[in-house]
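Exam revision sheet. Question 4 asks you to relate a sequence to its structure. Input first:
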Amino acid sequence: MPVGALVEAGELFGIAGNNVRVALARLLAAGQVVRDERGRYRLGETAAPALRRVRSWRGLDRVTRSWNGTWLAVQHGVASSERRRVDLRGRDKALRFFGLRPLTPALSVRPNNLRASLTEVRAELSALDLPRADLVFEIADLDPAAELRARRLWDAARIRTSYVKHLGELAHSEQRLGALSIEEAMVESFLLGRSIIRDLVLDPLLPDAICPAGERQALVEALRRYDRLGRVAWVGFLKRFDVPHIGTPLDSGLDAEPRRLAV
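Answer key, structure tokens:
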């Protein structure tokens, strides 16, 4: 995207153009974005691991399998003092993305119900900046007391309440988007979609034995529909700046530039 597009988009959200430029400079210095010869920006390689996780929300129903009762575990090593602060930030990010929770101060776990192999999980955790000193492995048999504590690391009732709340928010916004101006629809769909996508990306994806997944799947399906409406709202803006929007299987017919949304 060109700077002009980012600045104009920022204005919709009350972000001053100078603040957008300062943020871009910092992201560029950190390798989170890169700039091409035309002065247009895109995400950089440093952002790729987190981007993969963010984009994964559409296929959450395909990343888990039946749980066999084993656990994925990360044992936390001790980093050197000069690396400790950086390592802790990386560890926290990696553990949050994979829904791992601390069973002991030195051990974080999650149900081993991901389709990815242990080798693949290790590689992705490493890409998300898990410290090299941390060990990633499977636990086949926790003692009964530890098993009970592990299953209680997540507040299943709160998670399910969040699913239901988000379903209601999507339904309400979907009903009103058609009555909003394009600019209002752009802002509302972006803010609501971002909030729910964030929660889904950080969802621990628990097995049914701990937290039934039916409401989560209903939320993913509802968000797929809502995401299309948001893309309809943004497509005219993106076309004006010659920015290709990301296509999805539901995006046929988005080349139109509607004055109002057809819901």
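Marking note for examiners. The CA atoms of residues 36 and 42 lie 8 Å apart.
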